[in-house]
Amino acid sequence: MIAPDPKAVEIARLKYSWPTGSYVLDLTEFNLEVGERVLIVGPSGSGKSTLLNLICGTIKPSSGTLNVLGQSLVTMGEAQRDQFRAAHLGVIFQTLNVLPYLSALDNVALACRFSKFRADMAAKGHGNVNDAACHILERLFIDGELLHRPARFLSVGQQQRVAVARALVGMPQLIVADEPSSALDADTREEFMRLIMEESEKSRTSMIFASHDPMLANYFDRVVDLTSLNQVEDVSGRLEKLT
Ligand SMILES: Nc1ncnc2c1ncn2[C@@H]1O[C@H](COP(=O)(O)OP(=O)(O)OP(=O)(O)O)[C@@H](O)[C@H]1O
Ligand SMILES: [Mg+2]
Prior knowledge:
- The chain has helices at residues 48-56, 78-88, 104-109, 116-126, 129-139, 156-168, 186-202, 226-229, 235-242, and strands spanning 9-16, 25-32, 37-41, 63-68, 71-72, 89-92, 174-178, 206-210, 222-225.
- The chain is an alpha/beta fold.
- It has one domain (35-58, 78-226): P-loop containing nucleotide triphosphate hydrolases (Rossmann fold).
- Helix 7 links the parallel strand 7 and strand 8.
- The site of adenosine-5'-triphosphate has 15 residues, from helix 1 and helix 9.
């Protein structure tokens, strides 16, 4: 019998509490199929970033099952999770995380520095990592002199595009993005979504995004409201009582 293809994300009976409080997430089941695009919505404090951090392996569940691309993050140590993320995930965090002293180009190429697999994937499409990074940056209107400008001298919107390019370089199998378009104007947001969709279609990339932006819903196969999925009610209220 042939084993079923692993899902991009498979969650069962997952619980998480920040060290400071009681559970903020208690999810009975959540699956993301390979190639599927899901938008997570929910009010501020409902746990969207917490869920994405779990999927990225930057934090570990208190209990339950969490498989990403067929691998259990629960059984991996922190260094293994970091390596797994570098090789297979494109991540865009809610707060900007470009390195201010590196150029736009070096910030993007950096994504390939921690994983040979990722560097090989980038080189496969474009000859070498730098050309792959330039190609994606240029698609996001970071070109010419801007490519070599230290990120701290770029606007917030330009820095966000650098963060997006870094997530896309090397065609990762799963893209996890937390409010990725919050600092983009309407035109750039359209281009950003078009690019991310185009790039992802090439390699059946799965996507999980969290956003408040209702305009993004059209780009996704499914919109999931975290408040209806989470067994923990009134997440922020519970934590406030404890602090
Ligand atoms: N580092 C942390 N330490 C302790 N508690 C945290 C931490 N980060 C988030 N929380 C708490 O966990 C709960 C969920 O927060 P989270 O950031 O996941 O919400 P969110 O849905 O992403 O909100 P937003 O839309 O404002 O980004 C909140 O009650 C928050 O206060
Ligand atoms: Mg958040």
